[in-house]
Amino acid sequence: MSPAARPHAPPSQASILLVEDEVVLRSLLAETLRAAGFTIVEAANADEAWAYLHAAGGGVDLLFSDVAMPGSMDGIGLMTRVRKAFPDIKILITSGNLGPVDLNAFDGFVQKPFTLSHAANVAAGLLGMEPPEPE
Amino acid sequence: MTAECILLLEPEIVARQPLADYLRDCGFKVLEAANAAEARALLVAQPVAIDAVLADVGGDAGETFALAQWVRRTLPSVPVILAGSIEKAAAEAGDLCNDGRALMKPYDHQLVLQQIKRRLAARKT
């Protein structure tokens, strides 16, 4: 069974593709999620994330993506592609200024700015797990 | 004992991710950068104290060489290990390091680990 098909994988096995172009934020958030037991793949933008998903045939349980990013597509374009190609992957997006979007295109939203513990708890909740940290 | 931290600059996610995971499995903290600008931002912010830099010269070699020189000038205690997939670039990287040849790509993870351990050990003597 592929990782993406596991509905309630324990934290040590659940994987998150984290897409964020602000590298310091990405590193801090990745470290927080790793400390919570998730396996994290870091991508600097949507193009890189799509390259990974294409190469891995999906292979993650959750896409956690910023919206506004440089490159040929933004987070909205990425999640649209992911929803179509890998419907088992849950999608969590984050933005400080989210415009009109299709609410069926993603599973969760984290408003920027956010605390690291809040983001980790939302990710865990989407994967059907206990919140890793008090907020 | 606090884990030593490696800053890994590698533009190809399919090369970066498995090497980063391998180094984490070996007990290191790893910060990941997709380009020289990201690497410099992490070196300035230091969300975790960085002990060594492993940088690929394949993306934008000029930017990576500039980063390596900047690290040597501003953070002289932080060793920089360069890697390249092109013979000439690897040779140039080796010259810049003043420490023999640079690592060749595709990465031999065990060789990378040996090189990192050797450079970190040399830093302590």
In short:
The complex is a heterodimer of chains A (135) and B (125). Chain A has 135 residues and is an alpha/beta fold.
The top-level CATH class of chain B is Alpha Beta
Task: Tell me the span between the first and last alpha carbons of chain B.
Answer: 18 Å
Instruction: Write the CATH homologous superfamily of chain A.
Output: Response regulator
**Average of the residue pLDDT scores of chain B:** 88
Spatial extent as radius of gyration of chain A:
13 Å
Identify low-pLDDT runs of chain A: 1-8
Helical run tally of chain A: 4
List the helices and strands and how they pair.
The complex is a heterodimer of chains A (135) and B (125).
Chain A: E1 15-19, H1 23-35, E2 39-43, H2 46-56, E3 62-66, H3 75-85, E4 90-95, E5 108-111, H4 116-126
Helix pairs in contact in A: 1-4, 2-3
Chain B: E1 5-9, H1 13-25, E2 29-33, H2 36-45, E3 52-56, H3 61-74, E4 80-84, H4 87-97, E5 103-104, H5 109-124
Parallel strand pairs in B: 1-2, 1-3, 3-4, 4-5
Helix pairs in contact in B: 2-3, 3-4
Account of the 3D structure:
The complex is a heterodimer of chains A (135) and B (125). Chain A has four helices and five strands. With 135 residues, chain A is of the alpha/beta class. Chain A has one domain (3-126): Response regulator (Rossmann fold, 3-Layer(aba) Sandwich). In chain A, strand 3, helix 3 (75-85) and strand 4 (90-95) form a beta-alpha-beta unit. Chain A is globular. Chain A starts with 14 loop residues before the first strand and ends in a 9-residue tail after the last helix. With 125 residues, chain B is of the alpha/beta class. Chain B contains five helices and five strands. In chain B, strand 4 (80-84), helix 4 (87-97) and strand 5 (103-104) form a beta-alpha-beta unit. The longest helix of chain B is centred in the last third of the chain and has 16 residues, at 109-124. Chain B is globular. The interface between A and B is medium-sized, with 18 and 19 residues.
